[in-house]
Amino acid sequence: MKTIGILTSGGDAPGMNPAIRAIVRAGIFNGFRIMGIRQGYSGLIDGDIYEMNLSSVADIIHRGGTMLRSARSDEFKTESGFKKALNVLDVFGIDSLIVLGGDGTLRGAKDLYNAGVPTIGIPCTIDNDCGYSDYTIGFFTAVETVVDAISKIRDTSTSHGRANVIEVMGRRCGDIALYAGLAGGAESIIIPEVEFDIDEVCKRAIQGKNRGKLHHIIVLAEGVGNAYEVAKDIQDKTSIDTRVTVLGYIQRGGNPTSYDRILASKMGNRAIELLLEGKSGRALGVKCNEIIDLEINEALDIEKKFNLDMYNTSKILSI
Ligand code: F6P
Questions:
Q1: Is the CB of 40 under 6 A from ligand 1?
Q2: Which pLDDT score, from 0 to 100, does residue 119 have?
Q3: Which of 288, 296, 286, 299 lies closest to 15, judged by CA?
């Protein structure tokens, strides 16, 4: 009987649990032995590994976070840590590995594959920063959380006639800000992919105010500017009272949306199918609503394309 190890690593994402459930259930259905590796690559190095059964994944399809827990492991990036990981896989008789996480995690999966471990990568991150996949598991749940927050902040923004800067996550990718900004009707979206011009943000606020708008929502992707400084500049230049909300880790939790549960279930099942077909070194993704798999080295070289049309649409619609 073949043994498959599963791990989740890096920032957690809503949808990791339904993906784990799919891998365990489809894996056991197809006659594999499944080993859960706790706390990502750290747990792999430490041998924090146990055998999973059908009941191990009961009642998790709707839960955020990851039942296998997660970590960011610096040791795995060292030569000795990497060797330890290879040794542990050998000791536990793990023949192949399914790795769930964002860009850094999938690069770890690629290294393991290049070192001879049959590995499959599943993109799970709220950031949606994978170039080879239209969407990553967890992204739309995070967008829903942000849209809900924007709607609530918009209520109070209107009551007080204020501007509100809302800082969202996304590391070096503006997709959370872009999608949530469009869905939430934000007046300005500040993202790493487009040069930031404070005067344009202020102009849009003044124009909106002059035509009777009471609220003004600015969605700012983390890292582009300091939310408090941006808010101060807006207030100084427009005289509109401006407040700040940093959404932070609230975006990483919560029940996965049906889209993320379905994507996770399909990708988990597909990962098992690939191993059954004797394929590995693949990264799973979704393109035009179809689950795809690409050679992992090539997949990770594909650059993320920015959706300029969507950005322009949002600008037109929120004048
Ligand atoms: O990778 C997802 C992400 O949420 C980023 O958007 C954010 O910058 C980062 O993780 C924060 O991670 P940590 O858990 O290390 O603080």
A1: no
A2: 98
A3: 286
Q: Does the CB atom of residue 14 touch ligand 1 within 6 A? A: no
Whether 130 lines ligand 1, by a CB cut-off of 6 Å, is no
Q: Where are the domains of the chain?
A: 3-138+256-299, 142-252
Q: Which residues pair with 8 in a beta bridge?
A: 100
For the domain made up of 3-138+256-299, give the CATH fold.
Rossmann fold (3.40.50)
Domain 142-252 has what CATH class?
alpha beta
Q: Whose CA is nearest to atom 3 of ligand 1?
A: 11
Q: Which residues are catalytic?
A: 127
Residue 126 contacts residue 221 (beta carbons within 8 Å)? no
Task: Name residue 294's beta-bridge partners.
Answer: 283
Q: Ligand 1, closest atom to CA 222? A: 8
Q: Could you read off the pLDDT of 65-92 as tens digits, one per residue?
A: 999 999 999 999 999 999 999 999 999 9
Task: Answer for the pair 13, 121: CB distance below 8 angstroms, yes or no.
Answer: no
Give the E-state strand segments of 111-250 in sequence order: 119-123, 163-168, 188-190, 216-221, 242-246
pTM, to two decimals: 0.97
User: In ligand 1, which atom is closest to the CA atom of 10?
Assistant: 1
On the question of a common fold for 3-138+256-299 and 142-252, the answer reads yes
At 201-260, the pLDDT tens digits run: 999 999 999 999 999 999 999 989 999 999 999 999 999 999 999 999 999 999 999 999
Q: Kindly give the distance from the C-alpha atom of residue 11 to the centroid of ligand 1, in angstroms, as a whole number.
A: 5
Q: 75: CA distance to ligand 1 center in Å?
A: 19
DSSP H or E stretch at residue 290: strand 290-295
Counting atoms of ligand 1 from 1, which one is nearest the CA of 72? 15
**Token pair of 173, please?**
């990718």
DSSP SS3 for 100 = strand
